Amino acid sequence: MSYQVLARKWRPRKFAELVGQEHVVRALTHALDTGRMHHAYLFTGTRGVGKTTIARIFAKSLNCERGQSADPCGECSVCTAVDEGRFVDLLEIDAASNTGVDDVREVIENAQYAPSRGRFKGYLVDEVHMLSRNAFNALLKTLEEPPPHVKFLLATTDPQKLPVTVLSRCLKFNLKRLLPGQISGQMRHILAAENIACEDSALGELARAADGSLRDGLSLLDQAIAYGGGAVKADDVRTMLGSVARGQVLGVLDALAAGDGDRLLAECTQIASYSPDFGGVLDDIASVLHRLQLIQLIPGYRPEEGSDEDGSVASLAARIAAEDVQLYYQIATAGRRDLTCARRARVARVGGPDRARRPARSAGRGGAECRAARARRTHPGACPAIDPHEHGRRATGQPDGGPHQCGSGRTDTAAFHQRHAGGGDRDAGRARRPGPRPGAVGCRAVDRERSAGAVAEARIRRAGIAAVGQALFPLKRVATETFYPLNLGCMKPGVV
After folding, report:
1. Are 171 and 138 in contact (CB under 8 A)?
2. Do 170 and 53 share a structural domain?
3. Is the pLDDT of residue 384 over 90?
4. Of 38, 29, 36, nearest to 69 (Cα)?
5. In this predicted structure, what is the pLDDT of residue 276?
């Protein structure tokens, strides 16, 4: 017998076996028990959350040989035929390959005939948003007033593309994305039934990688079983997914909180030795920083899923200031976007005049290291903060107040935010405000950094434009005084 993948083998066959869609199950169960059933249902949601599965279970409940109920027997010929996909009165139509009006016309013509075996004839239209406009228009009348023995079960991942005339004729159910805890719980149940050893941390990694889709999670579980040789281990799963352990992410943040640049580089080197997906690494760092901020701002906050690193996270929350956590979070999320612009594996774009000319290539270690170094730079007592305005004064020969010092003489994070809160090189020729601009954010100020060459170039450009304007002003005045009276004279009657 050929192997059947877990996503198909463990597809729910009753409403009680569904995971995470209690609101849909409750509505359909009450409708079946009371007999108040609509003629058209629309199931929407992301991939792998149970749209087609719910439609099949509903068809079994309508046509079960032991009676119509919300709990089909699963043993009669009708239930068996529906599970195997060969029930003649349940027509599954793929709208992605049957998009034309001729396909819909065939459905309309066959809908008038009574069902062959069951009580109702069901039309399960998957990815219904792929139908053409003419096909939707042809279906409207039958969808509004179908024969009493016809039920329409529509499923789509993109309900925004459906015409409002179709939406108004259906009962719409929005299926939820599954939480990581729900996905890992179902995986644990399946592995126990399959007698496969697993580690809880490995299931957590798979559940987070599934991104709300149980089918994606079970597909990854199949891959992990094959990769681990019949067992699901955390190290194997991280290697397979290209992710890193949560402890390594905490090591990076711990070195950042301590202001230890050597240790920070060593942690980045250790992470790079696993050849991970650096975009995922930055996502993990942002996730931990999000937890840090909640612990700092919400008394008594506890994460949804407890882990062994909760004590380390609480310790970091006490060591890192709340404004620094926000700054680090901004750097991590901005770096996630900039990774695709890295020129080489060790060089990442962080700004500059040639940023638009650099080709978008694969992201690598340099992008993550550059973001870590940028966060390290803002740490109190770190390497001297560089003020682009002072670099501009040096480039143009203007006096400054000393190397790498702001007006207040401070080099900590607060002074760094205060220096840049008023803007970048746009405020070079303006008087400094006494304090930070209302509503200014330090994270935004950090992203306004410019190199000394760019600042000097901008000043030279402004000075050149001003000099040209001053040189042309006398010529403009002469031209105005000379030709304006002539123009007025030409407008007088009788003047040629």
Report:
1. no
2. yes
3. no
4. 29
5. 81
Q: How far apart are CA 322 and CA 332, in angstroms?
A: 15
Boundary (domain end) residue, out of 377, 401, 416: 377
For residues 251 and 361, state if they share a domain.
Answer: yes
The answer to whether the beta carbons of residues 62 and 69 sit under 8 Å apart is: no
Structure tokens that stand for 301 in this block? 């906050």
Backbone angles phi, psi at 426, to 5 degrees: -65, -30
Res 90: pLDDT: 93
The angle formed by the CA atoms of residues 253, 292 and 417, to the nearest 5 degrees, is: 75
168 and 207 share a domain? no
What total of structural domains would you count in the chain?
Answer: 3
CB 242 within 8 A of CB 275: yes
Q: Are 200 and 212 in contact (CB under 8 A)?
A: no
Of residues 250, 51, 63, the one with CA closest to residue 153: 51
Question: Is 50 in contact with 214 (CB distance < 8 Å)?
Answer: yes
Distance from C-alpha of 360 to C-alpha of 374, rounded to nearest angstrom: 21
Sheet with 90-94, strands from edge to edge, namely 90-94, 121-126, 150-156, 40-44, 171-174
For the cut 50, the answer to whether the pLDDT of residue 355 exceeds it is no
User: Please, what is the Cα angle at 48 between 177 and 172, to 5 degrees?
Assistant: 65
CATH number for the domain harbouring residue 194: 1.10.8.60
User: Residue 54: which pLDDT band, with cuts at 50, 70 and 90?
Assistant: very high
Give Cβ neighbours of residue 418 (< 8 Å, ≥ 6 apart). Answer: 406, 408, 435, 436
| 42: pLDDT strictly greater than 50 | yes
> Is 444 within a domain?
no
SS3 category, 120? coil
Structure-token pair, residue 280: 């995922």
Query: What phi and psi, each to the nearest 5 degrees, are found at residue 303?
Result: -65, 160
Let me know whether 21 and 164 are in one domain. yes
